[in-house]
Amino acid sequence: MKRKPLMIHWIYAIILVLTLVVALTGLYSTNAGFPYDYVNQYGTTVRIYGDGLYANDSFFKAPIFRASDATMLFLVVPLFLLFLIRNIAKQDKLSRSLLLGSVSMVLYYSSSLAFGAIYNDLHLAYIALFALSLFTTIVLLSQENHDYSGITLPYKAIYAFLTISGIALIVAWLPDILSAMLKRTSLAHIENYTTEITYVLDMGIIAPACFITMRLLQKRESLGYELLTMILFVCSAMGIMVCVQTIFQTAAGIVLPIEAIITKMAIFVALAAFSITLLGILLRRTAKHSDRT
Known about the structure:
By secondary structure, the chain is mainly alpha-helical. 72% of the residues lie in helices and 3% in strands.
């Protein structure tokens, strides 16, 4: 008998379509504008991108946003669609985990745009995408949790990953803030922004979530496995996204200091390789455990 799509499948579909529209517009919009300079509130001359949806964003940040759009468009959206089709057909534990991971990445992406990008024509779409992905994540986590008892995982490796990731996310960004505080200056790349949303997300949410997840896993609580899926998916996608962002910035003529490449990009890429490996193991074991139960 053919399974009927659940209400949440329609919500997934709306999230998917919104992500597609936002990513397509951000990546390909243009008005043939040119970069220009202006002096910000800190007395620093800032180069503004001047073209497309991100015309009012800085010349440094706009390629990062466009690279994020490209990663979502060509990686996350196709995977999300495949996972949704699978979930409609099977509605099993594995497909639910895959969708939870996809929505988590959309949540990270939409929050970065809603709180990080200069106001533009897609602001309402950002808000809608952020709200839908946030509350969908909450609903998924608040539903009756699946039984993970008896599932075998390389827990020592997972604990090591969560510990290293939690520390690395702080190490990657905290020096920037401390340096600015000690020098009593603005952040190095504050430019025409009021804050740095990446610092908030990585140090304020993901890093603590790593340590909370580790504790929950030690107690073998089902919420720990759900959070682990989210963290591994986001870290895997972010590692790829950081590489794409570096390519886009280099293509725009931005020269990144070697220390930034080593301390930031290398850390994220290494963690991504680790997380992709662990994610593959987790999903395979989840599928086998689901078949047995």
